[in-house]
Specification:
Elements: H1 5-16, H2 29-42, H3 61-65, E1 71-75, H4 79-84, H5 90-99, E2 102-106, H6 113-128, E3 134-138, H7 145-155, E4 158-159, E5 166-167, E6 170-171, H8 173-201, H9 203-208, H10 211-222, E7 260-261, H11 300-303, E8 305-306, E9 316-319, E10 325-328, E11 360-361, E12 367-371, H12 377-387, E13 395-399, H13 407-418, E14 427-435, H14 439-449, E15 455-463, E16 489-493, H15 501-510, E17 516-520, H16 529-540, E18 546-550, H17 558-566, E19 572-576, H18 586-598, E20 604-606, H19 613-620, E21 634-636, H20 644-660, E22 669-671, H21 681-692, E23 696-698, H22 704-713
Parallel strand pairs: 1-2, 2-3, 3-12, 12-13, 13-14, 14-15, 15-16, 16-17, 17-18, 18-19, 19-20, 20-21, 21-22, 22-23
Antiparallel strand pairs: 4-11, 5-6, 7-8, 9-10
Helix pairs in contact: 1-2, 5-6, 6-7, 7-12, 12-13, 14-15, 15-16, 17-18, 19-20, 20-21
GO cellular component, one term: nucleus
Keywords: Leucine-rich repeat, Phosphoprotein, Repeat, Ubl conjugation pathway
Protein name: Leucine-rich repeat-containing protein 41
Length: about 725
């Protein structure tokens, strides 16, 4: 029953010899130590020989700590992947396959084929035959297209059967067992057919047997278990006018194109033949090959092959009504994920198109995050094709990827995914520097395509100068009708756009289940706009529990602020950097306090960055006075120019109210980040010590003088 946390904390100091980041938020030092220990040993940051307790030939640091690792980050040249797939770390990799949940890639660089082969084996074991549910990639300014597409493809669960997933010259053992199980199916089906023939041709013999004997004999034949195939089912509609090997693209293919095409065909390029058009006859399905690469070293040909008119096996030549030959590229899913948006059009030959039908389908991850990784047109098309059938995907985060018009391509893939009966997609977060279209228009686009979303976050820093010019042939999303949605959380950061309630109204009307709304960096075009918004919220969102405004000037909207604080349905209200007290009087602060005192449903009030100062902070303590019916639990007064003497006075007043109420108040959490508490360390320590006896206090060691100097330097 004794906690070992202090022991692991001391081990951290002895072995790591560094101060852990965000140590206040660490809940389990054992887990933190072992995960960091594993990562540092793997990447050579920690020298095991430097500590006598670890320098033992019978002790394997990676093997010892691997069962406790739930997230792992691979960096730079993927040295960690090479080490983990080495023969002597086979048991380590097996442990990670059971424990690892989050796999991260950061600051990746281009690598050669041998390293890519190690990465393939690692991803195959940890994702396809492991427990990894989230793949995140960070900070890749100039991504290696081959490597990026390889990671995306394997994260989506696609890889070809019988490829170069060789571990020291032999195929993956788990795949081999699976193939062996599947190879028993034809014999089993033959037994069924024989049984049927016998049943039909030997009625006389069966009639001689009793019904019980006949049933027992039949059950004995059919009793062998059948494991469901992991691969995509082979196309069985032989009467289709399209080839079974679907792809998706727009534009024609140039015979001299240097574009690269993602393909899963194991046949070398010289042996591929173009499919002949089907005119009044059945088409034969392309069968997946279980053979190995002709050259096991050549993973590049799997990821990309050059699409040439004279040797492409994925083009279907058909005739248009004008009698011209065109090359139609069809999606592997129902409907083409990418259908002619400006962000998807190509001048050269089609590139980056993934042939899903020819791939072996494995387990895939449920969360994909891409941070600060530029995505080209070709990469967006490949991602769109992967998304169109990625049924296990629940969360997608695209942050600073330079999407611009390519967002239409991504949405096309997600739209195709949403039609899938097993779709689990629920969370979409898009953040970028420039907005290709107004924020509200994009929100309408997304909700029109994905009515099953639960969380949508759209965030942009700046307006695109060419925002007014929309792609040709792409109708304005502002005219699209929004079906009733399942949306529960909506977050919008405007690039200094005006907030027009009329544009937000259709979204709110379609989102009856909305529980949380966040509006960031919006401007109010007229004084009446906020009042209109409150009326719409009251009418259309009866389940709204959390409302947040950030960097929205509310200095002249005191009446609306008080109305929000009176709302009996809201449990959390945030006014962050909203200039609440910029031009207010003392009466306004008193009205805020009295309103909160009467509201028994409000649980959290966040007021960071509103220039409270000492005197307003002290006044806020009256929220918990003896005559208050408030249920406020959390108060955030970060970045409010609070000094140590003001915090101490607030603490004393709060202690007085607690005594008057018999020692019980609902207040449990106080946030004090980035205040001027360093100006008098002794007074600040006393105030914090007394406050922590009342509630949980979260603060930081902030240098206010340096922050003020930085502020002056950028003015």
């Amino acid at each position: 029953g004794l906690s070992t946390q202090p022991i692991w904390r001391k081990l951290w100091d002895d072995v790591m010899k560094t101060r852990p980041p965000n140590s206040e938020s660490i809940t389990c030092w054992r887990k933190k130590f072992l995960e960091t220990f594993f990562s540092n040993v793997l990447h050579g940051v920690l020298d095991v020989s430097s500590d006598w307790r670890l320098n033992d030939r019978h002790f394997s640091p990676l093997l010892h700590s691997s069962p406790h690792v739930s997230q792992l980050t691979l960096c730079n040249m993927l040295q960690g992947a090479v080490e983990l797939t080495a023969e002597h770390n086979h048991k380590v990799l097996e442990n990670l396959a059971g424990s690892l949940r989050i796999l991260k890639f950061q600051h990746l660089l281009s690598c050669d084929k041998s390293i890519r082969r190690s990465l393939v084996l690692l991803l195959h074991r940890l994702i396809h035959h492991g427990s990894v549910s989230q793949v995140s990639m960070y900070s890749w300014p100039v991504p290696d297209t081959v490597l990026l597409v390889l990671i995306l493809t394997m994260s989506a669960g696609f890889w070809r059967s019988g490829n170069a997933l060789a571990c020291h010259g032999s195929p993956c053992g788990l795949c081999r067992e699976e193939d062996k199980a599947q190879s028993q199916e034809p014999a089993q089906e033959g037994a069924e057919r024989g049984c049927n023939a016998e049943r039909e041709g030997s009625n006389g013999e069966n009639q001689k047997r009793s019904p019980k004997e006949a049933e027992a004999r039949m059950n004995s034949v059919l009793s062998s278990p059948r494991s469901p195939p992991l691969r995509n089912p082979v196309c069985e509609d032989t009467s289709s006018e399209e080839p079974c090997d679907h792809t998706s693209s727009q534009g024609g293919s140039s015979p001299h194109s240097s574009s690269e095409q993602l393909s899963c065909h194991p046949v070398p390029r010289k042996t591929r033949r173009r499919l002949k058009p089907a005119v009044g006859r059945k088409r034969r399905c392309l069968r997946r090959s279980r053979g190995r690469f002709a050259d096991p070293e050549d993973l590049y040909d799997f990821v990309f092959t050059v699409a040439r008119e004279d040797n492409s096996g994925l083009l279907d030549k058909t005739r248009t009504t004008e009698g011209e030959n065109t090359e139609n590229w069809t999606s592997s899913s129902s409907g083409s994920p990418c259908t002619g948006h400006a962000g998807c059009k190509k001048r050269g030959g089609p590139a980056g198109i993934f042939s899903l039908k020819a791939a072996h389908r494995f387990r895939s991850v449920s969360t994909l995050e891409l941070f600060s990784i530029p995505l080209t047109v070709e990469t967006c098309r490949t991602l769109s094709n992967l998304l169109s059938s990625w049924v296990s995907l629940e969360n997608l985060v695209l942050s600073y990827n330079g999407l611009n018009a390519n967002i239409s391509c991504i949405l096309s893939g997600l739209r195709a995914l949403s039609r899938h009966p097993e779709c689990r997609f629920r969370v979409l977060r898009v953040c970028d520097m420039f907005s290709h279209m107004p924020c509200m228009e994009l929100v309408r686009c997304v909700l029109s395509a994905l009515p099953q979303l639960h969380t949508l976050s759209v965030s942009f820093d700046l307006k695109n100068q060419l925002e007014g010019s929309r792609p040709e042939g792409n109708p304005s999303c502002s005219e699209a009708e929004i079906p009733e949605s399942c949306l529960e959380v909506l977050e919008i950061r405007f690039p200094r756009e005006p907030l027009h309630t009329a544009f937000l109204l259709p979204v709110l009307k379609a989102s009856k289940s909305l529980q949380q709304l966040s509006l960031d960096s919006a401007t109010l075009p007229c004084p009446q706009e906020l009042g209109l918004l409150l009326e719409v919220l009251k009418e259309c969102t009866p389940n709204l529990k959390k409302l947040s405004f950030h960097d929205v000037n509310l200095a002249e909207h005191q009446k609306e602020v008080l109305l929000l604080l009176q709302d009996p349905g809201l449990q959390e209200i945030t006014f962050s950097f909203c200039r609440l007290f910029e031009s207010s009087t003392a009466e306004f602060l008193s009205e805020i306090i009295n309103t909160v005192k009467r509201n028994s449903s409000l649980k959290s009030l966040k007021l960071p960055g509103n220039r409270l100062g000492n005197h307003r902070l002290v006044a806020l303590a009256d929220i918990f006075s003896e005559d208050s019916s408030s249920s406020l639990c959390q108060l955030d007064v970060s970045s409010n120019c609070i000094k140590p003497d003001g915090l101490l006075e607030f603490t004393k007043k709060l202690e007085g109210h607690i005594q008057q109420r018999g020692g019980q108040i609902p207040f449990t959490h106080l946030r004090l980040f980035q205040n001027w508490l360093d100006q008098d360390a002794e007074t600040a320590q006393e105030a914090l010590r007394r406050l922590k006896a009342v509630c949980s206090v979260v603060n930081d060691s902030w240098d206010s003088s340096q922050a003020f100097a930085d502020y002056i330097s950028v003015m």
